[in-house]
Amino acid sequence: MRRLSERGFTLIEVIMIIVVAGIAIPVLVMLMGRQAQLGVNPELSVTASNLGQSLMEEIKSKSFAGAGAYNGYSDAPSVGGVQYERTVEVCYVPGTDLNNTSSCGVATKYRRIKVRVSYALPENKQSYAEIVTLMTDYAE
Fold first, then answer.
1. Distance CA 7, CA 49 (A)
2. Which domains does the chain have, with CATH numbers?
3. Which residues sit opposite 89 in a β-bridge?
4. Most buried among 5, 30, 32, 92, using CB within 10 Å?
C-alpha cells in the first residue's frame, strides 16, 4: 500500500501515460500537417495577384490602340517552383454597359481589359485570380 508521504508515479501510471501519448501525438501531427498545407494557398493567391497586376500595369502603360494588341496574350511564368498561366482578354464595351462584352468587335471609346492568372493548388484543384480594368480613348 502506498503512503501519502511518498511521491512519484507507479509503473502502471507511466505505461498509461505512454499509451495515451502514443495515440494522441500522431493525430496532432496529422492535423498540424494539414494546416501547414492549407497555409500555402494564400501565398499562391498573393503571387497570382501580383503576377496579374504586373501584366495589367504593362498593358495600361500602352496607348488605347496598343492595349488591343494584348488580346489573346498568354504566358506561363514560374515563381518559386509553381507554374502560373496568365491570359489576357481585351474587348470593346459600350459606354452604357461596361461589363457587356457581347459586341466585343464593335469599336467604342471603352476597352475592358481582363487579366486572369491560373494556378494549381496542392490538392490538384485549379484556382485563379482575375484583375479587370477599363481603358478609355480620350482622343476625340
1. 61
2. 37-136 (2.20.130.10)
3. 114
4. 92
Backbone angles phi, psi at 77, to 5 degrees: -75, 155
Per-residue pLDDT of the chain (140 residues; tens, 9 = 90+): 556 556 788 899 899 999 999 988 888 888 777 666 656 678 888 999 999 999 999 999 999 889 999 999 999 999 988 899 999 999 999 888 888 888 788 888 899 999 999 998 777 788 899 999 999 987 65
- In 5-109, at which residue ranges do the beta strands (DSSP E only) sit? 74-75, 78-79, 82-92
**Torsion angle defined by CA atoms of residues 135, 85, 100 and 110, in that order, rounded to the nearest 10 degrees:** 10
Residues with Cβ within 8 Å of 104's Cβ and at least 6 positions away in sequence, in order, are: 91, 92, 93
The model carries a pTM of 0.69
Question: Greatest CA separation found in the chain?
Answer: 102
Residue 135 contacts residue 113 (beta carbons within 8 Å): yes
Please state, in angstroms and rounded to a whole number, the distance separating the CA atoms of residues 65 and 110: 11
